[in-house]
Amino acid sequence: MSSAPLAGTARRVLILAVAALVALAMSVVVTAGRAAAAPGPSFTNPVVPTPNSADPTLVFHNGFYYYVATTWTADVVMRRSATIAGLRSAPEQVVVRTGGTTMWAPHLEMVDNRWYLYYSVEQTGGPRRTHVAQSAGSDPMGPYTIRGIVNLMPNNGWAIDASLLRLNGNLYMTFSAFASDGLQSLFIAPMTNPWTAGAFGTRISAPTLAWERQDGAVNEGSFALQRGGRTFLTYSASHCNGPNYKLGMLEYRGGDPLAASSWTKFPNPIFQRNDANGVYGPGHHSFFTSPDGTETWIAYHANSSASQGCGTTRTTRVQKISWNADGTPNLGVPVSTSTVLQGPSGEVMPAYARISNRHSGLCLDDYNWVTTPGAEVRQWTCNGLAPQDWQITPAADGYSTITNRHSGLCLDNYNFGTAPGSEVRQWTCNGLAVQQWRITSVGGGYSTLTNRHSGLCLDNYNFGTAPGAEVRQWTCNGNNAQQWTIS
Ligand code: AHR
Question: Which of 256, 334, 454, 484 is the most exposed place for a label (fewest CB within 10 A)?
Fold first, then answer.
């Protein structure tokens, strides 16, 4: 370290002068060469790991995906991410404390600018029934108020896997329940509002075909898919305890939607196990649209072994679907967990991202809200505040600059360090290599950030886990202290 402060100061002034010139040049080059907003990062399945990863509902709304799935606990938890690739590491937030037990198959849907969560739970002394919670406003993250039980079957009967269907200007609920013949079948009920059934459900599909009766005769997990004026009701068939759980499909043919005669069943499954790809029991799905509205995707759960069943081994996978020439959906085959998929069309990183460390779970933070060059960067409990909002701007050669929302300063390899342990601070953005970071996905929604000048990685120094833990640069070694989620 120089012992002559004047030399040090003069050096920094000179560097700043040079930086100003270079930055000017760079700003022209960067501006001229600035990349268009990159599509969402690629990913591999599963996009959400166990345990809360079966029976997924995935919705894209106002720039973010919102994800809910079976938890087997008393709670409904939700994940939020700007990209599919970021789902895995997106924190789970409890959005409904149901007051019941073993929450199954939450379905998230907006009706008249309010979000509704439909889920089934068991309650002391009563059968498993469908409950509904309503958001206070238009934020899918809530808060929610439980509106109660949707009374779908006589005698407070068992009912699960509820989802909504809009048809002919009316609102319906499709769900699974046991009919008088003992078959777990698909039912439909008219809704007078999103939380009230106008009548008990009527059966529109029973598990009568051989492929619906493997390991147990079941029809459940219904989800409507509408396109070109046609209405398909897709559902899960056979028992989730076996590898032959699969998807089937009905189509509405006109008439009273409450009448079974208004629906026809396609004779063959539309999505099922693929042993070559190592995917077993794919089912209990939902469909979602890509951010730009041009693609339809399916989210479903599956096991990676034929011997696994309905427990917490089922993980969430997503893939794009297509459409056949006759207008029916083509779901293809469930892809292998080694298949790299491009994120849905129109995915973009949010204007600001939170950067959190895999080891500490803490967020990169403009420490003490400082706004002057040299401001420290540390880790702090994630709080969603501006000092933890970072704008990632593509620069040249696959590098990016990372600007703090509160300070307006750039993440900077302080003093042009090149040795392990070199400091990371914030400095006036100048476009120099010390402020350029290569973000490299290492899978699972995690990335490393490598400084262009030092070649070192952004590092949770000394594996800190307490708020205030230091952030420095260290030789890239791939461990969790150097893995960050950007979401
Ligand atoms: O995963 C829990 C339950 O098991 C779901 O509600 C149902 O679809 C599945 O069979």
Answer: 256
Using left for φ > 0, alpha for ψ between -120 and 50, and beta otherwise, residue 141 falls in alpha
**161 pocket-lining for ligand 1 (C-beta < 6 Å):** yes
The two tokens of residue 401 are 């600059």
Q: Which DSSP string do the residues of 51-94 spell out, in sequence order?
A: SS-EEEEEEEETTEEEEEEE-SSSEEEEEEESSSTTTTTSPPEE
Q: Which amino acid is at 350?
A: P
Each residue's pLDDT tens digit, 359-377: 999 999 999 999 999 999 9
pLDDT in tens, 177-193: 999 999 999 999 999 99
| 146 and 119 Cβ atoms separated by less than 8 Å | no
| Closest-CA residue to 281 (of 234, 243, 255) | 243
Cα 222 to ligand 1 centroid, rounded to whole Å? 11
- Tell me how far apart the alpha carbons of residues 443 and 22 are, in angstroms, rounded to a whole number: 35
Give burial (CB, 10 Å; 0-12/13-18/19+) of 479.
middle
Compute the distance between CA of residue 313 and CA of residue 277 in angstroms, rounded to an integer. 17
CATH for 350-486, options being 2.30.110.10, 3.10.129.10, 2.60.200.40, 2.80.10.50: 2.80.10.50
Measure 98 CA to ligand 1 centroid, in angstroms: 17
Q: What is the topology classification, in CATH, of domain 54-330?
A: Tachylectin-2; Chain A (2.115.10)
The pLDDT assigned to 31 comes to 28
- By C-alpha distance, which of 413, 402, 270 is closest to 331? 270
Query: Which residues form the catalytic set?
Result: 55, 220
Give the number of other CB atoms < 10 A from CB of residue 324.
Answer: 8
